[in-house]
TrEMBL record:
Organism: Psychracetigena formicireducens
Gene3D superfamilies: Nucleotidyltransferases domain 2 (1.20.120.330)
Protein name in UniProt: HEPN domain-containing protein
Segments forming domain HEPN: 14-127
Family: Belongs to the UPF0332 family.
């Protein structure tokens, strides 16, 4: 299935950014920068959510709108497992803690979970985009 060239190009760029952010999250986790790793893991997922929403001609600037639209368009429809939403919400909350909290911190186990969940979500979105013809195999 051949898709619009410009749309596919934009999605490819956004997914590359997600991949880069995930790699940085892994590195930060390994360097024991757990707050920053959690934040970068969330942003990796956020970029992939924005990419997949473009397939429905949807684009939002607010994080909550991106997450909500993904839930509505892709989780309710059964394209992705229901637990994706819970994982994304947890990633968002951990990002908030990592970036803005002074009395709480992300621990090693939470950071590790965040990075692993981000990788799983991004890989699933990448596979969906390949199957739908937006990314080459």
């Amino acid at each position: 299935m051949k898709r619009d060239t410009e749309l596919s190009k934009q999605i490819k760029i956004m997914m590359a950014k997600a991949k880069d952010s995930l790699e940085v999250a892994r590195q930060l986790h390994e360097q024991k920068h757990y707050n920053d790793a959690a934040s970068k893991a969330y942003y990796a997922v956020f970029h992939s959510l924005q990419a997949i929403l473009l397939t429905k001609e949807l684009s939002f600037s607010k994080h909550s709108a991106v997450v909500s639209a993904f839930n509505k368009e892709f989780i309710y429809s059964g394209d992705f497992a229901k637990d994706f939403y819970k994982k994304i919400i947890r990633l968002f909350k951990d990002r908030q803690i990592g970036d803005y909290e002074y009395t709480k911190e992300i621990d090693r186990a939470s950071s590790e979970t965040d990075v692993a969940d981000a990788e799983m979500i991004i890989n699933a979105i990448k596979e969906y985009l390949k199957n739908e013809g937006y990314l080459s195999a």
